[in-house]
Specification:
- By secondary structure, the protein is of the alpha/beta class.
- It has a single domain (about 50-315), classed as NAD(P)-binding Rossmann-like Domain (Rossmann fold), CATH 3.40.50.720.
- The chain contains 14 helices and seven strands.
- The protein has a seven-stranded parallel β-sheet with strand order 3-2-1-4-5-6-7, sandwiched between helices.
- β4, α8 and β5 form a beta-alpha-beta unit.
- α5 (about 75-85) crosses α12 and α13 crosses α14.
Length: about 325
């Protein structure tokens, strides 16, 4: 009832007045410390949530082979550099050969070891080939980071004749990741040790996020898969971590999606810290204060939260809609 009244009241305000109010709020927000916005989103705070140390990461990954997908941009690139500084043995997976070669050189210059596999993980044959090459050249993997992702921002009424939107997101975000898991986990179980890190999104944890139906469905599918199989592999010391990634400043939200540029977001380096946290501590879930609170509120009162998101949906336009990057992305 309150949200309906709020929506009716907002509708009475002229559009130009709403825009001026929004700009005023943005200007006031810029005067606040950056951590006031990034800390609730999972940003680092000394003592409370400090940066993951390179020494701890090095100790955790010593002697372990790490497969990182979506490794050439955004969060994946920042994670690759952190692994290099930790002297890790990294196998990079992405589509672009030139970028892969460049990132591999950067990792070696930082002190790590790097190999690469060129592949489009939305293609089933390519995903299977990644497994074959990792096993043939390295004997398997000890850690798999499923970071590659494809997001589509589009409302339902523009998808009635676009079933392929859902097929494309599922092909990469779900089936591509599952094929790597199915191919690499048997070796982990035989060796009695392994770790799967799936990069999910804050949107799955909270619940409603209009315009992202295809993306959230694919991420939720992978989360449900991991939750189902994690107990099966516990006896073989194969651990699973799901990272509920918040909004991160990658090409996914720039330059045209102006509405998302206004929202608090993490840098790719800050986002990668959540992945490093998963690698070092091996928790079942890596979350943020905003995600934890939002998820709780949605479960307590889903209708109220959905009504709030409805307001956002109705008053945020689709201006500048663009299809985000496919590899190494996070929507949040």
């Amino acid at each position: 009832m309150l949200t309906e009244r709020a929506r009716s009241a907002i509708e009475l305000v002229p559009a130009q007045t709403r825009k001026r109010a929004l700009r005023t709020i943005e200007q006031a927000a810029r005067r606040l410390p950056t951590t006031a916005f990034t800390a609730p989103m999972g940003g680092r705070l000394p003592l409370v949530r400090p940066n993951v140390s390179t020494d701890k990461l090095r100790e955790r990954l010593d002697g372990r082979r790490v497969v990182l997908t979506g490794a050439t941009s955004g969060i994946g690139l920042a994670t690759a550099h952190a692994l290099g500084r930790a002297n890790a043995d990294v196998i990079l997976v992405a589509r672009g050969e030139d970028r892969l070669e460049q990132v591999a050189k950067e990792i070696r210059a930082l002190g790590g070891q790097a190999d690469m596999v060129i592949a489009n993980l939305s293609d089933a044959d390519d995903a299977d080939r990644v497994v074959e090459e990792v096993v043939d050249r390295h004997g398997g993997a000890d850690v798999l980071i499923n970071n590659a992702g494809h997001s589509i921002r589009r409302p339902l009424d523009r998808q009635y004749d676009r079933a392929h939107d859902f097929e494309r997101t599922m092909a990469l975000n779900y089936f591509g990741a599952v094929r790597l898991i199915l191919g690499l986990v048997p070796g982990m179980r035989e060796r009695h040790g392994g770790h799967i890190v799936n990069v999910s999104t804050l949107g799955v944890q909270i619940g409603p996020e209009p315009r992202f139906g295809a993306y959230l469905a694919s991420k939720a599918a992978l989360d449900a898969f991991a939750a189902s199989v994690a107990p099966e592999t516990a006896g073989d010391n194969v651990r699973w971590s799901t990272v509920f990634m918040p909004l991160v400043r990658t090409p996914m939200i720039a330059p045209k999606q102006s509405a998302y540029r206004r929202l608090p977001s993490l840098s790719p380096e800050e986002g990668s810290q959540l992945i490093l946290e998963a690698l070092v501590d091996k928790p079942r879930y890596v979350t943020t204060p905003v995600g934890t609170l939002g998820g709780l509120l949605y479960r307590l009162s889903p209708s109220a939260i959905e009504a709030l998101f409805r307001l956002g949906f109705e008053f945020l336009s689709d201006e500048g809609e663009a299809e985000p990057e496919r590899n190494g992305a996070s929507a949040g």
